Amino acid sequence: MRWPRRATKIPDDARAALGLAPGERVLAAARPTDGSWLVATDRGLVAPGVRLDWSSITHAQWYDEETALSVASVDDTGAVGEQTFHVADPGLLPETVHERVVATILLSRHLPVAGRRGVRVVARRQPGSDELVWQVVPDPGIDPNDPQVSARVRAAVQQMRTELGG
User: Fold this and answer.
1) Nearest alpha-carbon partner for 67 in 93, 46, 47
2) Nearest to 90 by CA among 71, 111, 64, 110
3) Cα dihedral 122, 102, 46, 119 sign
4) Which listed site, 15, 34, 43, 163, has its alpha carbon 20 to 30 Å from 133?
5) How far out from the chain centre does Cα 88 lie?
6) Would you list the domain boundaries of the chain?
């Protein structure tokens, strides 16, 4: 027996304003305090002027007291950004974001390079793709472009590729 699928509906004009692609499924949605829409789709987290693939989000946290979702992400250049969305009624959005972000992580390692500080190397896969995405997220005060750090990262990626069968 197949259970009926409960799709989250948002108005057509909101879909258009968010730039959702034809066939992109909305999994959870909430209204930030500015009256716009914040949606978790099968492809990523989307808000006006913001589109974050699940594999680009390094950390997401829901804060009950502030009724806010804080999202840290890394772009293709390695730049880290953080955004906070204030949402009075989050519905299933925090749980959906958490589940989707975690589902992209295949393997993660922290490499200490200065005491306990170092870089996190993460192998991820965006839903619907076979391509591996490698991320290097430095701890505060660590320069990922330092030659010694880069060498350690290259060695770790090689070892992790082997572990993943590639």
Assistant:
1) 93
2) 64
3) negative
4) 15
5) 22
6) 12-103, 105-163
